[in-house]
Amino acid sequence: MDFAPTDEQRMLLDGVDRFMARHLPPDEVRRRDADRDPPYFLLPLMGEMGLLGQTVPEDHGGSGGDWLTLALVQERMGYHAFMAVVLLNRVACFGIESILAGGSEEQRQEFLPALVRGEANFAMALTEPGAGSDAGGIRTRAAKTDGGWVINGRKTWISGAEAATRMVVACRSGDQPRGSRGVTMLLVPPGAKGVSMTRLEKVGNNCSLSWDIGFEDVFVRDDAVLGEPDAGFDVLRATLRFARAGLAASVVGVAQAAVDTALEHAQTREQFGRPIGSFQTIAHRLADMQTSVDLARLATYRLAWMIDQDLPCEREAAQAKLVATEALKSVSDEGMQIMASAGYAASSDMQRFWRDSRLYTFGEGSSEILRGLIARDMGL
To answer: pTM value?
Structure first.
């Protein structure tokens, strides 16, 4: 289990650094965050670089590479700007991995090449007003009809739906009123007749727009089913495993950026005649911050290795997502304390790390739910 980057991976990461410096430098990140302006223009450029097709088989336009390489890219891009890597993750996880997990050959032919080129983008529509952590409580219903399905219901806090080629919509389709059985995943165009969208305002992640979405007699054809009817949770579990792996790698990058930002401030800010980093209180705080990020990085790399080995890793996915997101929440909060007013300023990157971090400990599986998954895997 060797996590040292290969020469090819180092070249790829250097390319990511140049890509971000050219297309999304720090001042542009701050502007887009303030203006709530997602950088969707990056997706075709990521496609040209080959960043989106890392895990896609070559016969579908990808490079047939490994997840560890993708995790390294996610971490490095997250270091520069989460608003960029979240776009990559929607394509790689909600799009590519969903299609690889449950897509028919026709769906693979239709969507994978476009996803790899950055010409398509998916959004996951799972959460409902009464079904968040309790995913088995979804009530949006898909009724079978001649030639397809009719969807009625409501989803909420769905990110990126405004630019999605398809939404992956989890619908109750069987006789069971709740639970993981009797759920069908359907690929729905956001512009389909009967779909309505209302934007939701948030305190952070300003370039990941979120929506409340209504479905009123929305018809989709039979070929919109992803996986098997009534067995959509099989696809969902696979998708969430990859989504958690991608989020973990991405926020490790953000967390390292937060530590580096606080460290630079501690080295240059002087009080009582010397840099504040020379005081043991600050030095030890920074040491703890770096240690938590390093531990999260190791958990993330181990998960990527297990995915590449095709090993069962639901527990490890929960662990990596848990420790990475909690690390970012902690180091961004500590960074705010170290930087004080300099971090609280609207122009500061630290306040953005701090605001954004609060989403990640409950999005795509709350820390409490993840601890429950880990405990259950331990036999508790």
So the answer is: 0.95
